[in-house]
Amino acid sequence: GLFPSNLPLFLSFATEKHSCVSGRGTDYRGSHHQTASGVTCLRWDSHILAKKVYNAFHPDAHHLGLSSHNYCRNPDNDTRPWCHTFKDGVTKWEYCDVPACSTCGLRKHKVAEIQIKGGVYSYIESHPWQAGIFVKSRGAEGYLCGGILINSCWILSAAHCFTERIDPGRLKVVLGRTFRVISSDTEQVFQVERYIVHEKFKPQTFDHDIALLKLKLFSENCATETDSVRPVCLPEAGLQLSDWTECEVSGYGKHEASSPFFSERLKEGHVRLYPDSQCTPARLANRTVTKNMLCAGDTRELDDACKGDSGGPLVCLNDGRMKLIGIISWGVGCGKKNTPGVYTRVVHYLDWIQEKMRT
């Protein structure tokens, strides 16, 4: 009964130490025992290493993770884990290729500011996966939709944002920006190489409302990870969260359904996941609801994501990380009590996302 709520977080990070490297990997305690060139590591307690500085006989060996095994370690704060090798009568050392731990879905949460209808003003550091998609038409540049960073070069968004068959050359994606149209030193701006709208998207019902945008390469990768730019985690296959789980939406959307102007600053709203039994046409002005949609809304008439946030994220905390559960798709009105917003059910599209990113 002592602090049960802290347990899952502790456990999830404990397992990470054993399978992947965070930072330089000084706290890596996994069992990877091969060097980058494929040579098997020498045991740290081997008598061949008796004269080396780092071995299982080091006074601090236990603290450094060195004992009677041959696993890669980083006892000297090198750039990454390494080990000693013994080949053809020669003792050497070599780096190991232990995979890096994913930092998806982690963030520095800054306390949001002023309450407004439809949420609170927020900072990009709290939603570092939030993207803004802009489109150039006749020389001017307009805000099109929100998007979600899922890895360095790929953005998820809503299919209905791209029904006009916009030329990818006219699109621009902005990451790391708190104010929609004001540049900042934390932002990263990209051209779009191509985009893929779901083949079965139906404009009449918004079924399969999902699209992927591939960013143009910028040196060897696209987006660089910072506190303001970081991918969200995709959910595991089959992930089901309980009804009324509190989740959050973010975007640069309008405050009111009737407002002609988009919000100039990122905002966030807190919404709860509706049970499927309450995500019905009767609740949503008799519009079609399919199994690829989920509902979330605020039960207090405050924080629903309002129009203009299309393509943005609905994220929920799960195992210590923010996971992408929905893509903002459509709604009836804005922030009305007992009228939920409708989201694309991301867990149904994991295979589609992987397949499109491979091709």
TrEMBL record:
Pfam families: Kringle (PF00051), Trypsin (PF00089). It is found in: Secreted. Keywords: Disulfide bond, Glycoprotein, Hydrolase, Kringle, Plasminogen activation, Protease, Secreted, Serine protease, Signal. Residues 19-101 form the Kringle domain. It catalyses: Specific cleavage of Arg-|-Val bond in plasminogen to form plasmin. One of its GO terms (biological process) is cellular response to oxygen-containing compound. Residues 116-358 form the Peptidase S1 domain. The keyword Cell inner membrane does not apply. Its EC number is 3.4.21.68. Coiled coil: none annotated. The keyword NAD does not apply. This is t-plasminogen activator. The gene is PLAT.
